[in-house]
Design goal:
Strand 5, helix 7 and strand 6 form a beta-alpha-beta unit. With 292 residues, the chain is an alpha/beta fold. The chain has a single domain, classed as 3-Layer(aba) Sandwich (Rossmann fold), CATH 3.40.50. The chain binds nicotinamide-adenine-dinucleotide. Nicotinamide-adenine-dinucleotide (NAD) binds next to helix 3 and helix 8. Nicotinamide-adenine-dinucleotide binds next to helix 3 and helix 8.
């Protein structure tokens, strides 16, 4: 004899129309379908950017990666995209140099003819106590994390407006744009800026069908995160910073570091029509860090 719950399940198994299920799946697939779209991912050779490039390619987008490292260092990401049948073009470029912006735009248009999605992901971060901060670190960090993001957005928005098809700008900020971890003062300033230009641009370009949002990751396992300790810091200070990090991971509600895929899934949502009515928002993907 089946109880009430099991008879409802049995009823659904027998009577759910496979055609209806197929239609439902199709509608969901369409929501996240990026076929025919072109996405620029800065810093897409590895880490979070690599994860985003792979996920957007899986959804059908043609990917343009702009990154400072040699193409051979991006091999794992590029191979994975191509093995799955995805389309990807690579440009080695230092985004702290202003002429790189035009270069990225020009080469993307040569490769694909259009730009629908921009993921401003490239960023640097170094743990350094305040007494170790240098002007050089300020210039490098602000020029990449904030200036390159701002002017690449300007250039891409110009294309999107002239082509009249709208688009998606996705900026990778950080939980540090909301709450400082310590030892990251210059980085925090850059990411606070990212969060604010995101909101400012969003206000201006909504009328062109362009959405601008940012994702604020918590601690994510990436090559950059594994090299976070700044140069010339004493062993005592390194130990203090490491102890702080261990404590931080142990107290996270989800009790683990995030993976690039965790951020890539959020980026897919923001690139897709599932997020059509979102702009000027910060998506926290932080394992609960901001609750602490
Ligand atoms: N990993 C984390 O815990 C974490 C947390 C919050 C936010 N973020 C942000 O996520 C983004 C990606 O971080 P990640 O951890 O993947 O870093 P990562 O160092 O692992 O990867 C960064 C990528 O950017 C590229 N890059 C660096 N300088 C460049 C330049 N001048 N021009 C072009 N490309 C350059 C690198 O070659 C690399 O491929 C950054 O903006 C970072 O601030 C990371």
């Amino acid at each position: 004899m089946l109880d009430k719950h099991h008879s409802i399940v049995a009823f659904q198994v027998i009577f759910l129309n496979p055609k209806k299920i197929k239609k439902m799946n199709q509608a969901l697939n369409n929501l996240y379908d990026l076929n025919g779209k072109t996405a620029i991912v800065t810093g897409g050779a590895m880490g979070i950017g690599g994860g985003i490039a792979k996920r957007l390619a899986e959804a059908g987008a043609s990917i343009f990666i702009a990154d400072i490292v040699n193409e051979s260092e991006a091999k794992i990401t590029l191979d994975e995209i191509r093995e799955k049948g995805g389309k990807v073009t690579y440009l080695q470029v230092d985004l702290t140099q202003m002429e790189s912006i035009d270069n990225v735009i020009e080469k993307t248009l040569v490769a694909y003819g259009d730009i629908d999605i921009l993921v401003n992901n490239a960023g640097i971060f170094k743990y350094l106590p305040v007494t170790y901060l240098t002007e050089e670190l300020w210039d490098k960090t602000i020029n990449l994390n904030l200036k390159a993001l701002t002017f690449l957005t300007k250039a891409v928005v110009n294309i999107m407006i002239s082509k009249k098809h709208g688009g998606r700008i996705i900026n990778i900020s950080s939980v540090d744009s909301l709450k400082p971890s310590g030892y990251l003062a210059i980085y925090d300033a850059s990411k606070g800026g990212v969060r604010m230009v995101t909101r400012s641009f969003a206000k201006e370009v909504g009328k062109y069908g362009i959405t601008v949002n940012d994702i604020a990751p918590g601690g994510i396992n990436t090559p950059g995160a594994s090299k976070i300790m700044g140069d010339n810091v004493t062993p005592e200070e390194i130990n203090a910073m490491k102890a702080g990090m261990t404590q931080f991971i142990n107290t996270l509600p989800l009790q683990r570091m995030g993976e690039p895929e965790d951020i890539a899934n959020a980026a897919l949502f923001l690139a897709s029509s599932a997020s059509a009515y979102m702009t000027g928002s910060t998506m926290l993907v932080d394992g609960g860090l901001m609750l602490m």
